[in-house]
Write a structure and sequence with these properties.
The chain has five helices and three strands. By secondary structure, it is of the alpha+beta class. Strand 2 (42-50) and strand 3 (53-62) form a beta hairpin. The longest helix has 22 residues, at 128-149.
């Protein structure tokens, strides 16, 4: 195994075993639970958004190392980002782990500068069954943000 692959593997294991921002947030105004029925991964994402900026991002839950590492890295990556930047980060991360559009002629270039440490999860694209593990926190995040931005009907 190359040194860089070993480093990436160690980072995933570290975040999987000792996830960062693994706490419920009482101040969160965007909260949503995500569940992957195929493997049982379950987590809740807590986002404190103020004036269109992610001020705090935390999560709680349980799942495999990939799921926990992805959620942990996600919470670190989105703090201080605008909602627009967060959406762009989601799109880039999704392309990274799914290889989306690779054979379609669609521009799938990935801004590794934007993704930073999230690039350690690039290998997930080689294991389609693990993509849902890596993206669970991200889809939950987007649902939480979208839910908050919608006008809630009282009907």
């Amino acid at each position: 195994m190359s040194d860089i692959n070993e480093l990436y593997q160690q980072l995933i294991i570290d975040h999987g075993r000792r996830p960062r921002n693994f706490v419920e947030s009482a101040s969160a105004n965007c909260v949503l639970e995500g569940f992957n029925p195929l493997c049982g991964d379950r987590l809740t994402v807590y986002i404190t958004e103020q004036d269109g900026v992610v001020k705090e991002a935390t999560f709680l839950g349980n799942g495999c190392a990939i799921s926990m590492a992805s959620a942990s890295l996600m919470t670190e990556a989105i703090k201080g980002k605008t909602l627009q930047q967060t959406r762009a980060l989601f799109a880039a991360f999704h392309r990274l782990v799914t290889g989306a559009g690779a054979d379609s002629g669609i521009d799938t270039s990935i801004d590794t500068g934007l993704l930073g440490k999230l690039c350690v999860l690039a290998g997930v694209a080689e294991f389609p069954a693990r993509v849902k593990c890596a993206t669970l926190a991200w889809h939950t995040l987007m649902g939480a943000i979208d839910r908050e931005e919608r006008v809630i009907s009282t009907e």
